[in-house]
Each structure stands twice: as structure tokens, then as C-alpha cells.
């Protein structure tokens, strides 16, 4: 079972690394990058941080989310356990923000499903994805 969770962690980390890079650069797909730029104009209008008085500029918002996803995805896939746990938390917060944004924009369920699935997998990794603690030899 540990191998399955390790595979899930690595694949999910690589997925976030890829989505982060797609937000940062048009090298993977110019059309996808252009689409994300236009979407983040809408996303910036309903950014959850506006509740706290922070209104991000769409381009900076796209870059911040892209860098956070890329770095956290890399650390989730290949980092030491402590950094995996921190990156899991960071990615979970990003996914909660994504779900909030999509719901405020009244997007379809199909648009919310990927972020919801990613959040569910991150929470699964957080709850069950760690090796059982070893027992001391002499109890």
C-alpha cells in the first residue's frame, strides 16, 4: 500500500509541477498559457484575498499561483517528508481557493471537478500517505 501512496504522491506532484510551468511559460502550449492568462483576469476579480483587502493584478496572480504550484509540486514529488507535508498544505490551500473562485464565478460542476479531485487526493495523502511510525524494539 505504501508503494501506491508513493506513486500517487509523485504523480500528483508532477501534475502540479506541470500545471505550474504551464502558467509561467508558453513553452508547453501557447494556447493553454493564453487561455490561463484570460481566465486569471476573471479569477483576480473574485480572488479570495480580496476579503482581506488584497486585490492582485491578474498577471502577478497567475505568476504567484504558477510558482507556488511548480515549487510545491516538485517538493511534493521529490522532497523530504517535512517539505512534502508543507507542500501538501500549500497545494491544498491553492485548491480550496480555486474551488472558492470557481463557485463564486458560478462555473459548471465540470469546471470544479479537477480542483475538487486534486484536493481530495491531497487530503488522502495527508491522512493516509505516510508510513506507519516504527515501534521501539524495547517496549
What does this structure look like?
There is one protein chain. The chain is an all-alpha fold and 139 residues long. Helix content is 75%, strand content 0%. It is built from five helices and no strands. Helix 1 (2-24) packs antiparallel against helix 3 (58-78), helix 1 (2-24) packs across helix 5 (109-128) and helix 4 packs antiparallel against helix 5. It is elongated, with a radius of gyration of 17 Å. The two termini are 27 Å apart. The model has no long low-confidence stretch (mean pLDDT 92).
Write the layout of secondary structure elements.
Elements: H1 2-24, H2 30-45, H3 58-78, H4 81-104, H5 109-128
Cα separation of the termini: 27 Å
Count all strands and give the number: 0
The assigned structural class equals mainly alpha
Which percent band covers the strand fraction?
Answer: under 5%
The H-and-E topology, N to C, reads as HHHHH
Biggest β-sheet: count, sense, barrel? none
Q: Give me the Rg, rounded.
A: 17 Å
Uncertain spans, ≥5 residues at pLDDT below 50? none
Shape field: elongated
Amino acid at each position: 500500500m505504501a508503494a501506491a501512496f508513493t506513486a500517487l504522491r509523485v504523480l500528483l506532484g508532477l501534475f502540479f509541477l506541470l500545471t505550474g510551468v504551464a502558467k509561467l511559460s508558453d513553452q508547453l502550449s501557447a494556447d493553454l498559457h493564453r487561455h490561463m492568462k484570460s481566465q486569471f483576469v476573471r479569477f483576480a476579480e473574485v480572488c479570495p484575498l480580496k476579503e482581506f483587502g488584497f486585490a492582485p493584478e491578474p498577471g502577478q496572480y497567475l505568476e504567484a499561483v504558477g510558482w507556488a504550484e511548480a515549487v510545491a509540486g516538485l517538493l511534493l514529488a521529490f522532497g523530504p517528508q517535512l517539505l512534502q507535508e508543507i507542500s501538501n498544505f500549500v497545494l491544498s490551500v491553492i485548491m480550496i481557493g480555486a474551488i472558492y473562485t470557481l463557485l463564486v464565478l458560478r462555473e459548471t460542476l465540470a469546471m470544479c471537478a479537477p480542483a475538487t479531485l486534486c484536493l481530495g487526493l491531497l487530503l488522502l495523502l495527508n491522512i493516509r500517505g505516510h508510513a506507519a511510525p516504527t515501534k521501539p524494539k524495547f517496549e
